[in-house]
Every structure is written in C-alpha cells, then in structure tokens.
Design brief:
Layout lengths: L1 E9 L3 H12 L4 E4 L6 H5 L32 H14 L4 E2 L4 E7 L2 E6 L2 E10 L6 E2 L13 E4 L13 E5 L3 H12 L4 E5 L3 E2 L3 E2 L2 E2 H7 L13 H4 L5 E2 L11 H7 L2 E4 L1 E5 L2 E4 L3 H25 L24 E3 L5 E6 L3 E2 L28 E3 L15 H28 L1
Parallel strand pairs: 1-2, 1-6, 2-3, 6-21, 8-19, 9-10, 9-19, 10-15, 11-14
Antiparallel strand pairs: 4-5, 5-6, 7-20, 12-13, 16-17, 17-18
Helix pairs in contact: 1-9
Length: 421
C-alpha cells in the first residue's frame, strides 16, 4: 500500500473529516490516514460518561448540521461517534484506517509519509491528529509512592475501575470537575487540587452560555485579534458540564456535594503532597473573569434595549474554598489510594521530522499554516478562532486551510509550468 496523492490528512476525527470535505470541494485529490478507526480518540481515549460542553445545535460540520430532536441537549461519546461515522459515510471520506504514521519528512517535491502499511508521497500534508494525545503530568509525579495508584484522565473510564479508598483529582477544569463528581457519586471520598480555572454558568438570563458567547462574537474572535495568542491557546477549558438539567458544575457545587478543595499541587516531598496556599486568590480570579463576561452580556442587552426579551440578570455566589484548606497530605496515612491527573494534554509530534517545532515541542504555525510550505495543521486550540476547539469550530477553519492549500498547489503548479517552459 502507498502511492502518490496531492494531500495526506493525518487523523480521521472531526478536524480531518471537515478538511476532507473542503478539499473535495476544491477538487484536490487526498487521503486520510487514521491509526485506528473514524473518531478513534473519542472511541478509545475518553471516559464513558463524558458529554460535550457545547449544545447539540453546535455539532455541525461542512454540509452537515445536527438534525436530531434535542438541539439544546448535549451529546455523549457514543452519540458523537455515531455522528462522525455517519458523516464520514455521507461525504464518502477517503479514509485508510488501521494505518499508523511513523514519519513525515520533507522532499524536493513535497513530503514523504511513512506508515506501517506503506509509503505515500504528497505535495501537501494536513496534521489533524489532535492536540489531546499525551496526558500532561507534573514532573514530581514520579515521587508519588507506589502505594498510590496514578492514572491520567486519558486512562480513566469509570469509578468501578479504581481501587477502593479516597481519590485525589489534580486539575479543576471541565475534565477534572466532571471526573471528581462522578467518583464522589460512587461513594468515594474525593479531593480536588485547584489551579487556574475558568468559571462559567451553564445558563444566564435564560440562555445557554454558548448562546451569549455567540451573540458577543467571542467564539468568532480571530487569533490575530487577541493581545497574547500563545496564552489564549493555553487557557483551560471552562468549568461546564452538559446535562439534562442544565445545571452548573463549579467548585461551590462540588463543595456542597461533599468534595474537598485544596490548592494547586506544588510538589511531593518524602511521600507528602504539598499544596499551594493561594487557593482563595485563584478562586477570586476565576470569579472575576466570569463576572466580567456576565457584565458584557448585561451591557449588550441594555445597549440594544432588549431587557424585556430576557430574564433579569443574577448575581452568582462567590466561590467558597472552605475554611483553612490543608497545605499538605502525608500519603503514608493511606487515605488517598488513587490520584487522577487531569492536568491537560499535549500533542504527539514524535513522528514529525520537519523543523516546525519550537524548543518545547509545540508546533509553530500562523493560524494553522506552518513555516514549512505545504504543511498545515487542523483542530488545535484557538487555531484560527476561539471556537476552533469545538466541533462546529473546525468547519470555518477547514474552509480557510483548504483555500490556502489549494492556492499553494496552484502557485506551485504555475512555477513548475514556467520552469518546464
């Protein structure tokens, strides 16, 4: 297996499929190489009860919008996988499954893509393998005693797979809070380490928070419009959960339910966990950012004289971190049996042999266009717009990247024609 093609797309998730559809419209010959099956990451690397943070009506890809009976609901993993599989069939995506990319190198005419099933030569490559490949764990994770089981959110599936006893969840973004609540509901004692986070209500003034971010234009904000795009791309995911009751999931909710809060895990010394003493300040910052957004919504309503169209504004209770949160925990006492690392992910570019990575191994790109001609990215956080991280955000990005790629191929062909003439 192998051959020549104008473009190779690496990854058959939502980003790769959306790009495939847009390349088809441009008339560009291409293949999608996928190490597993369509939507492989969603199938094999997410916990069972996960639901999307954005409403179903936002689950749309090029030429395919959600048409189910619950536009305001939130898809679970199984439903999302079905949506992506149906989409791949609908657009007749040229997916080669069970094919692992081993290396991508630059050649005189484009790129050489070596896989475990053959070699492809192509003029362009789109990296759509995602940015949630390798779980991030702190450097001191190796100092955790062997008596405590450590797993990442990447490996976590359900509470039944955990050892009996207390659980420490490190990370307070959407993933950490959802996993912490599920484990707590299984009857275990749970503690959450809280670092920088984004607190948001599920609904405000009668509308989902995504409605308001759309109205304010925040989700369409371009990467060139922000002061510090590098920081914007590292902002943690909001403390949200998709549920039938549209309820909030924040630190106050967890505390009311019996989950203990501590500060950011700062280190491990002789089997003792050490927590930051800045928990209260971190919570205040999370509240401040939320209240700024809510004030922007209120201002928009007043400016348009829309007060009668929406429910009155509301004040949310400040986050209460609890009295005198503990600063250390001796693991020798045996109260904590499992630590779940929910500290985020980073992409895996170990197979990418093109000089487009910075000293930290991050892909250098300008809105998905890398410094290496003909090499592109898709599906990265805030890649071209703030909504790039969400399912429906990849549609606009795929259109832009495909247009750039098509233009690049046309210019390259013109140069070859001039040279040949």
């Amino acid at each position: 297996m192998g051959g020549e093609v104008a473009c190779i797309i690496i990854g058959a998730g939502q980003a790769g499929l959306a790009t495939s559809r847009e390349l088809y419209k441009q008339g560009i010959d291409h293949l999608i190489l996928e190490r597993g099956e369509v939507a492989n990451t969603w199938k094999t690397e997410r916990w069972e009860s996960l639901r999307l943070l954005s409403p179903n009506r936002h689950c749309q890809l090029p030429d395919r919008a959600y048409n189910g009976e619950d536009p305001n609901g939130f898809m679970g993993v199984t439903e999302l996988v079905g949506f992506l599989e149906d989409y791949a069939q609908q657009i007749d995506a040229p997916v080669v499954t069970g094919t692992t990319v081993l290396s991508v190198t630059a050649t005189m005419s484009g790129y050489k893509v070596v896989t475990d099933r053959g070699v492809w030569h192509c003029r362009t490559v789109v990296i759509a393998s995602g940015c949630y490949n390798i779980p991030v764990t702190p450097r001191y994770a190796q100092d955790i005693p062997d008596s405590v089981a450590c797993i990442s959110s990447h490996e976590y599936r359900n509470p039944g797979e955990l050892a009996d006893g207390g659980v420490l969840v490190v990370g307070a973004s959407a993933t950490g809070l959802q996993i912490a609540r599920e484990i707590h509901n299984s009857g275990r004692s749970v503690t959450v380490c809280v670092g920088e986070h984004v607190r948001l209500p599920r609904r405000y003034r009668g509308r989902d928070i995504f409605h308001w971010m759309d109205v304010l234009g925040l989700l369409d904000e371009g990467y060139q419009e922000v002061d510090d795009i590098h920081r914007a791309r590292r902002v943690p995911s909001a403390q949200l959960v998709g549920s039938s009751d549209n309820g909030d999931l924040d630190l106050n909710t967890l505390r009311r339910e019996g989950v203990q809060l501590v500060g950011r895990l700062a280190g491990v010394h002789n089997g003792t966990l050490q927590f930051s003493g800045a928990l209260a300040n971190v919570c205040k910052m999370g509240d401040l950012k939320m209240n700024r957004l809510l004030q922007s919504i209120d201002d928009w309503i007043v400016a348009g004289n829309f007060q009668k169209r929406f429910l009155p504004g509301e004040d949310f209770v400040a986050t209460d971190p609890g009295d005198d949160p503990r600063l250390s925990w001796d693991l020798a006492h045996g109260e904590i049996k499992t630590i779940v690392w929910a500290c985020g992910f980073r992409p895996d570019y170990s197979w990418l042999k093109v000089p487009v990575l910075d000293r930290r191994g991050r892909l250098c790109h300008d809105g998905g266009v890398t410094p290496s001609p003909g090499l592109y990215a898709m599906g990265l956080p805030f890649m071209r717009r703030r909504k790039s991280s969400f399912i429906y955000g990849v549609s606009d990005d795929a259109r832009d990247i495909s247009a750039h790629l098509s233009s690049y191929l046309a210019q390259a062909q013109q140069k070859r024609s001039v040279f040949a003439g």
